[in-house]
Amino acid sequence: MSRQMQPTLVLVHGAFANSFSFAPLQAELGLLGHRSVAVDLPGHGFAATYPRAYQAPQDLGELAAAPGAIKGVTLADNAAHLIGVLERAKRNGPVVLVSHSRGGMTATVAANQRPELIDRIVYVSAWCPVDLDVSAYYAEPEMATVDARGLASALVGNPAELGLLRSNFRTADPGVLASFKAAFLADGTDDEFMVFLNTFQPDENLDVGSPDDRAQAGTWGRIPKTYIRLTEDTSLPLAVQDRMIREGDALTPENPYDVRTLTGSHLKWLVDPAPAARVLGEIAALQVPSAGS
Questions:
Q1: Among candidates 277, 256, 291, 285, which has minimal Cα distance to 26?
Q2: Residue 30 needs a FRET pair 20 to 30 A away by CA distance; which of 65, 79, 157, 254 works?
Q3: Cα(97)–Cα(95) distance, integer angstroms
Q4: Percent of the chain with pLDDT over 90
């Protein structure tokens, strides 16, 4: 296959995460012969803020007041950055946009604005709001099993004053750590969980979008789409994932989701990436032009 025919998988991380999360997955994809690029959204990766008060010994009072670079970053900023990556990737051939968790919001906005840059959009247990804003889904029955209080207990500072969300992922509180593990990686070992937790950054932006940022039939709806369900996900429960699928199919019944399923929690597919890499490879193959086309 010529490199101009080879799809590029563009990987978009979720909340408090970054491109580092995808390193094991990219290794598996590379070994299967697939090209990929992991994106750091604005204020993420090496652009993130790690206040000195976040280091040990921690100073929680100072941490609650320290400024963060992600303050003022919006969903529109995320989408603009992603579109820039998609424009560059598209020069090399077909593009498969893959998003996880909160990253689905950014992927959806980019797809609304520039559908011609995306040959297929893939959501891996990710938000793709259609009927409601993301914040409103949290009041819906499908989210009733989510331990919001446990996750909120790690928040530091006043988000309205900081202009961002800040979580203390370096806490030693056993109750908070247990809540994190149950939400993100209940099916992983304690060591795997602690390693992944230490790849998280403390700050995330506040903007979860508006009705204008929901999936639009005339743009987003033209793109072939896949939803990969994670069966043991407790932070974005299977019932919510299935609702995303139903709403998307109802919006564009002529272009329904291609639905795949992986067994595992919110992060297991990244900790043990071989099964996900095989599925993504199958999906990427759908975008390879046939001979003579």
A1: 277
A2: 79
A3: 6
A4: 93
